[in-house]
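Backbone geometry tokens:
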Amino acid sequence: MIGGLPVTSVIVRSSVNVMAGGKTKRSAIIHGALLLVAVPLIPTWLNKIPLSSLAAILLVTGVKLASPALVKQMWNEGRSQFLPFVVTVIAIVLTDLLTGILIGLATAIGFILHSNMRHPIRRVVEKHLGGEVLHIELTNQVSFLNRAALAHALSEVPANSHVLIDARQTDYIDPDVLDLIRDFKDLSAPARHIEVSLVGFKARYRFEDQIQYLDYSTCELQQSLTPRQVLQILKDGNERFRSGRHLTRDMVRQVRVTADRQHPLAVVLSCIDSRTPAEIIFDLGIGDIFSIRIAGNVVGPQILASAEYGCAVAGAKLILVVGHTRCGAVTTAVNLACSAQTAAAATGCDHLGSIITDIQSSLDPTACRDLREGKQGTLDAFIDAVTRQNVQRAVESFRRYSRPLDKLVHDQCLAFVGALYHVENGAIEILTECPAEPTTPPSSDTNILSALGSKRHHDASQ
């Protein structure tokens, strides 16, 4: 009636009640009503129940609740879970139920406090486009016990650097800790020329989210980077994507600052496959790349025009062609090459033939025969090999059929790179690195799009 905890009746309310067929909360209410009636009215009769009978019921129920499987589970969860469990069991056996539970509770609290004091924050250095940022992520509960550890972390922030204090996963921050963060932001950091960014602080803390570091591509950044550096940015982004350590970005700010201008670092030609979104697999922000997507990564006049605009006009430093394993377009091209069907007849798609024909240019004429005779290995491995060859052809097509792109490569302002994305694990395999020296430009000055159209007509006729 006054809110007391019914310690001794928990087993009856829960597991025994369920095993007896109880399905709703009404069973617990009925149990409470029975206790309320029985204890004051028939205590003498209740005391006539043999204690051995009650003990047998409790022992059987206890064995079911504290089974060897439960002990093994607690052991597997680590010392911080297993030791409070063992201490609670031993304390209950040696004392009584209430005392044992209190001892176990005190032990668990001790482990929680010790964990909070040891790991109050998580620190990681993020490599943003504008430079390195020290990301300090606060835990769920930041109490006065964590103040010393946080103060030590903030004091170790190098001068002339940038720090991000992240409270997005935090439910409570002690006022003393808030004062520490406020003093660091307003006094200590400016004195040491440290830029402080804040994110995730609740309104009641009177902190505004403020991202001050550069997390998107600017004109100055685009002009200062080389093609090799842009490729390394993409490699680093894919590594973060695979490990789940995405950079902390202010997307709202990126939308605002890129509304009137854009300075992409690269043009990425990828497949339309739903598993290969370039901005995600390279952990990029808004405005960082031009993304061109077409089934099979084939290069046609429209693709060339888009790439020329992205590099010659918008200033991108890299063209990255990204094929992927288990590609549906390549699989269809291989299957149709080994059969007498057309793309339209096999798929019902009237306009798929041009893409299929282009991909089939990467096939060896004897491939179907070797595949049937088992000389090409498994079908999946063969399709991935054709995909690699198709990526190489796409890279060569950019240089061969575009004078503006070829000139940018000759001037060492642009590089072409081929890559293969593995849908099984999210890894990027670089097939062609940035060349150290520009290759020899083509000697022909024929019309680019006409040459490409003539080649397509020739391939289709074959």
About this structure: Residues 219-461 form a domain with the Beta-carbonic Anhydrase; Chain A fold (CATH 3.40.1050.10). The CA atoms of residues 165 and 212 lie 12 Å apart. DSSP finds 21 helices and eleven strands in the chain.
